[in-house]
Fold each of these.
Amino acid sequence: MLEDHVIVEYFWNRNEQAIRESSLKYGPLCYSIAYNILLNRQDSEECVNSTWMKAWNSIPPQRPNKLSAYFAKITRNLSLNKLKSRKAAKRGGTDVDIAVEELWECLPSSFDVEAEYQKMELLNLINQFLYMLPVQHCNIFIRRYFFVQPVKEIARQYQLKENHVSVILSRIRKELYLYLQKEYFYDV
Amino acid sequence: MTYEMFEVIGEIDDGLIDRCLKEKKAPRRKKTLIWIAAAACLCIAVLSAVVYGLIQGDVSSGDDPSSYLYRLPPTGGDSNSWFYEKFNLKSSTISGEWFDELGETVSDWCEKYDREKKSGRLDTTYPPLVKFIKECNITKETCVKVMEQMRINEEMTGLNPPIHLTEEEINVIYSGDIKQINKTFVSEYSIYANGKIFTPEWLVNHTAKDYRREGITYGQLKEKVDKYYTRLLEGTEEKDEFLSVFQNILQELSGQNR
């Protein structure tokens, strides 16, 4: 498979090979993210296709350093948007809803994440917190709340019991809550 | 409020995501049915890998595709890129069940396949799945077992169209008869005639005389051209040129083969 910088050059040169190579290299990753969120094959494929189109429209001017993360974020956002529109009338039950519920306990009530500057502040703090975690715990957190992988699947990947993964996640959420509370109040 | 939190996590540092993706996973110890997404991933990875390895025309025709005048028109991404293939979906898929059965053998073979493709040494005589079965010396018994597992998983997950092999298709693979293999696994955009497969790229780069020599009929071409009309991106010059070539060939063929 081609190196990322070559694929980015294809995008910059408006060469359609960019989409083919992206699909070849990152199609599985994007599909799994979309599928974790949407649990629907057709919708997931649509989101993956839309990912390439969105990348095509945004590179240039953008020049992503890590294509995997770049595509992953696009797919995640597109999938969440699709999920929102699909569930406008009906909520509850998907793995996203469960993940969202789990995150409820992380956020101190003083945060107003609808305010843009607080959103940025929150993002910075979460990044700092994640970099401080042991790598495996950090990755488990990212798999659960970024890639929306079911706990069962994470447990299988790490050869751990489901319950063990749940305990790790619960502990991280509590630590995140304390970290946000401490850092946020300290800064303010 | 927590939904926004969930969205904020979607913007975490690229380095964190990259590190997570590069993490070496623990080896698998047992089979499980809870790998649906992972299996789908593996399917798509191999699908993608094989599709793009097969777009260089039809080796069975003995041509050098680099000398072709016409290039295939743009198709706009994943779903339409199947337009370029020589073989159909099921014969181009190494699904997750193979991994469950054979473990690292599968990923090793996929890596080898990828290397051959990159170096231009990929032999596309056989469909990828047949190549895999031959090169990894998979017994028919194992193949039947894996296909049965695929069938069960497809039923459970509602995957459509199903891509497990039927008993008849397995028999064709193990017969080793390349003509039968081509006939059974030809893609919906390519034409099978007299034991060979002719891809859209071959078709657009040859004349009615070549078609007659190879035994391709007006009806066969007409059926494919109708499909090309619906599957290619609208409004591109390449599409117009591509289809007009076929109109001329159809006109020439219509006198004799219709």
Note: Chain B touches chain A through 50 residues (CB under 8 Å).
Amino acid sequence: MIKTLRQIAAVGIISEPPPQPDEDLRIRDSLQAHIRAVLGRALCIRHIDAGSCNGCELEIHALNNPLYNLEGLGIRFVASPRHADLLLVTGPVSKHMEVALRRTYEATPDPKLVVALGDCGCTGGIFGESYASCGRVSNVLPVDVAVPGCPPSPTRILAGILTAISSAPAGRAAPV
Amino acid sequence: MPMQMWFSHSAPQPGAPGLYSLAVSPEQWRQVAQDFAAAAGRLLALWASADERGTPTIRAAFLAERRGLLLSVPLARPEISYPGIGDLFPAAVRMQRAIADLTGLRSTDSDARPWLRHAAWPAGYRPLLDPPLSAPDPQANLDDYAFVRVEGDGVHEIAVGPVHAGTIEPGHFRFSVVGEKVLRLEERLAYTHKGIEQRFTQLRILDAHRLAARVSGDSAVAYSWAYCQALESMAGVEIAPRAAWLRALYLELERVANHLGDLGALGNDAGFAFGLAQFSRLKEGLLRASHEALGERYLMDAIAPGGTRRDLARNGAPSLGLYLREIADEVLRLRVIYDEHEGVRDRFNGAGTVAPELAARLGLTGLAGRASAQAFDLRSDLPCEPYTQLAVKKITRTDGDVAARVAVRFDELQESCRLIQHILGALPDGPHRTPVREPAEGVIGAGLIEGWRGPVWVALEAGPAGTIRRCHPHDPSWQNWPVLEHAIIGNIIPDFPLINKSFNLSYSGHDL
């Protein structure tokens, strides 16, 4: 026990300040400002791997490390879509995951946000569309924010999440 | 010995060292498999393609006594089932089912259920033989899968997935339990099947290493190296020494990153969140050091045909070396804390045991295999450059439980840190990339690299004018997923996440 405590004390607090929202990542502005105010930064996220190579998952995991300290921002990952405000979707959507993804979306209470993650989530990526792949997430679900990268860094993922829960500046709302 | 007879009839196979190739008839095929099984050989991969004349061909790769054999079995009459080898190599069963889904070629084995195909494409469509489709069938819906039912007093089923409660890949687990004790687990995978093998045939052979790197993102280096190893052998290119050493540096960095991630997650799954915080901190530091020295946090595009995409940044070697030394020291300290923590020890010891005899019979491979006394590591048993000069220490344990898989990770992590220091100190000068020409049509190459999870195999066949006729990437998860079904028997459901994590198998790498 003393070794554990000594290690905790030696490392100290290493969390870094979060990035700013990035309007370039927004592709849709669906939530009214007052709803955003309610969601605020007490945000529950449900991650869904809809067919990714598992690269994006590695960086989502990194968000929970002490340097990014997601929970310190009031944001946490939850086990059920029924507890979630935001769905974080990775991968090109495989045909085999399409139904599960739609059902997860339906199980998420309104109002809800969808962030598509990674080059595959944004465009289908290198896998594209095929007999087994539906391609980008927006082919299956309405997407609010799309974060490119292969995989996107934790900072970019966090910027995408913060963009989704911040209001688009007047006149900047992207077309639905 | 008969197995050696097959080698004496074979020809050297371009690709990883120690590989040979041989074509046999469907009648001889079973005899070869029997001889390899009798010689305690391993089935590395089993897939199908069409040869240059369009004849559907079953292909298999076996390893025995520090040599590999790539076997081709042309099927003159593809409508007749080829002999199954599930009784000799249990892992072959799912591979045979996958072959049927992708090419329509059926084995004589009894389990004829689809494996990779749920309902995305009709049974009559053969993704690897028929022309590619640009979109999935819009009519496709959910299908019914015939899970094996367990019946008896108090037995009930728990269905989990495909969407799991954490940040992990999708798959379905069907548990048959009494109370909280697991009687049987049946996996259903292929939720992330996205048509990778068909996709390869639409890419240029000199570009497709990028797709190989994304077969399983956590093993990007292993896959892209195996792909390039195959390609370079087909083109008759020998990479520069510096390129080979840089690749080994990347491969060991990938191993360290994954082992750090797993050790943290395993502590967390045992209720010790301190472990996750500490190991994920170290991992983040490693990724940042990689970014600084190599330009990428994850080395998704670090390896390219002919060598590496970039050279090490100036000052890259000392800064990486410094951080790796810090990791090695910190991990030693954390290991003592794990070892002395009674709660952690209680969860790790005796959980998810795979005894060495069972591991041998089922073909458990890679890291999980080494934790169950399957002492095989390509880096020391069939080394390519520069591993021939690195004298990698092979790590094994015999207990076969979660604790053993944790211990193998701890030891391998230290060994990889040592290798990285050695590589950084001995990195040869010279170019890091050699030009590679497109290989001639019909040439076949094979890559084989010990990824952090186990042996990664890539078989590549060149098509006309720089295209790919066929590329088959094979993940060690194919061998190990069926063993997980055995590892959980008799354990309690709440230990499943821990046991599953201790194997940490790839869904994407398996589902393709």
Note: Chain B has a mean pLDDT of 95.
